[in-house]
Design goal:
Length: 459
């Protein structure tokens, strides 16, 4: 059966560009075609791709992952018998430089996309179109992550303000407790706090929070901190505290709203959908993986069968280092690739940091990276996260729970596993100090200085 490839350079607001390559003759059999995301125009594109032949023809479409345009165009083509492949933008850019080093245009990009299934078919994977429920879960997981990031950013801004106004809140006042929120909204000026005194502040606090009447020890510490600030800045208020308090009220309200929305979304959307799509909940048998993390894995992986092998899955995840090998030499310690969803990589990193404390097989890997190979903590956790993701893949592929085992393969219960991790694979503090980033940098600088000295002696 003859094969024709449609290379499609997608756009967000402008017209998409496409060109058709005939694999038998290795020639382009159409001009550069312009079309929008419209069923009639897509039908015309398919008619052009099939034109000039009466025999059955295999159609392949290679399109770049541009915003969500790929989903609309790709799903329509897939339903009309076209094999759709979504191509990484960096891969297109790399081949474009080979195709034409000094130019970039829609025509060149379309031609490059059409050539990719011929030049590097083993690097392409069939486009995956998740179900409506998987898409909903994925969007909800992304939204929760955005809300958490917004809340964390707001908290950082509040802490920065506390630091330069109050030199940090006094002892006994947690930065995001009810007390701290109340102080920022009502008594944020150190000069007003000093003028009011302990009695007035205590009375104001008890009138607002009567259930916390016993908790007034922080008021004295607040007065002492106010005196320190006034000594530093002088007797006259250097800031407009009315506008500053109004700004902090808005910031705190933004943080509260983001946290509430993230909580409601997790409680009423993410977890119910996850339980419906994965009723066995085998992913939660992994140490360090809870409902929210399992929901993220399920949302982004979807149908695990779309990955032909574990190697393909790990390449998709991005939790593998770059490879650089020539002759008998091979570079070590390279950074991980930028492939894969960032949320999956971040979740795997956080889960692995917990799993190393409870799973002997991950604990021994972390211990080996830190003690034997001299890696710092982040590098060791990345190695553990890679190992953890292989388990996620196997659990989803085989639809079976994970069983905790010792390093020799003996099944163990949770308490025994925890004891093994603490007794055998606890990394000494001196090793952590030796392996931290600052120590690594100092050793690198020392080696560089030695090389420079040797070079000067040779001269």
């Amino acid at each position: 059966m003859n094969t024709r490839i449609i290379g499609i350079d997608l756009a967000v607001t402008a017209a998409h560009k496409a060109i058709v390559l005939d694999c038998a003759s290795n020639d382009f059999v159409s001009p550069l075609l312009s079309f929008y995301t419209d069923p009639a125009e897509l039908d015309r594109l398919l008619a052009v791709a099939r034109a000039g032949t009466t025999e059955p023809i295999r159609l392949i479409a290679a399109l770049e992952a541009t915003a969500m345009s790929w989903y609309s165009v790709g799903s329509y083509l897939e339903r009309h018998g076209v094999e759709v492949y979504r191509v990484n933008g960096q891969q297109v850019a790399d081949l474009r430089r080979v195709y034409n080093r000094h130019a970039k245009s829609d025509r060149i990009d379309a031609r490059v996309l059409a050539r990719l299934p011929v030049t590097a078919p083993e690097t392409l994977h069939r486009c995956y179109f998740p179900s409506a429920q998987i898409l909903t879960l994925q969007r909800a997981c992304r939204e929760v992550a955005r809300l958490r990031a917004a809340g964390a950013a707001g908290k950082n801004r509040i802490l920065a303000t506390d630091k330069f106004i109050w030199l940090g809140l006094p002892e006994g006042v947690s930065p995001f407790s009810t007390t701290a929120y109340w102080l920022r909204e009502n008594w944020y000026s150190p000069w007003q706090v000093q003028a009011a005194g302990v009695a007035a502040l205590t009375q104001s606090w008890l009138a607002t929070e009567p259930e916390d009447q016993a908790d007034t020890a922080w008021v004295t510490a607040l007065l002492q901190k106010a005196e320190m600030v006034i000594t530093l800045y002088g007797a006259t208020e250097p800031f407009d505290f009315d506008s500053l308090q109004a700004s902090l009220r808005r910031e705190q309200e933004t943080v509260r709203r983001a946290e509430e929305q993230a909580h409601d979304l997790r409680l009423h959307t993410v977890r119910p959908l996850y339980r419906h799509l994965h009723p066995q909940r085998h992913l939660e048998t992994l140490r360090g993986v809870g409902q929210d993390s399992a929901a993220i894995y399920l949302a982004f992986i979807g149908d695990c069968q779309r990955f032909p092998s574990l190697h393909d899955f790990m390449g998709w995840s991005g939790m593998i280092p770059y490879s650089r090998q020539s002759g008998e030499g091979e570079a070590k310690g390279l950074r991980i690739t930028k492939a894969g969803p960032n949320l999956v990589k971040a979740t795997a990193f956080l889960n692995a940091n917990v799993a190393r404390l409870w799973d002997p097989q991950i604990a021994v890997l972390y211990h080996h990276q830190m003690v034997d190979l001299g890696k710092h903590h982040l590098q060791a956790i990345c190695a553990c996260a890679t190992h953890l993701l292989t388990r996620v893949y196997v659990i989803l592929r085989d639809n079976r729970p994970y069983e905790l085992r010792d390093v020799d393969g003996t099944p163990v219960d949770k308490r025994t596993a925890r004891r093994i991790c603490q007794e055998r694979y606890l990394v000494p503090e001196e090793v952590r100090i030796r392996n931290n980033k600052r120590a690594h940098k100092a050793r690198q600088e020392a080696r560089l200085e030695k090389r420079l000295q040797r070079s000067r002696r040779k001269r």
